[in-house]
Amino acid sequence: MMDKNVSALLVLRGRQLLGIFTERDYARKIILQGRSSAVTPVGAVMSSRLITVCRETPVATCMEIMTRERIRHLPVLQEGRLEGIISIGDLVKHVIEEQQHTIMQLETYISS
Known about the structure:
CBS-domain, 4 strands, elongated
């Protein structure tokens, strides 16, 4: 995960989403429990209680879910099919871009 600069991996069997394995899972379920990452199966330490969203889920709702559930990643499903994963970083970046756009529009309005 470190080599690829990712902090979460989705665990699949074929096309079926089984769980998610995050840096937090690694720290809490492997390192802190004294397990060996070389021999511990991902299935034994992944988070299998999945909270998912769909493409139409508003950004604000995703942020609310992440805050309430204290998670940093949400798998995106569409009609039961995995479409991708969204991170808290993705959401923050979107909100910042949206706010910058609004500021530019207001500045243009004020100066004209």
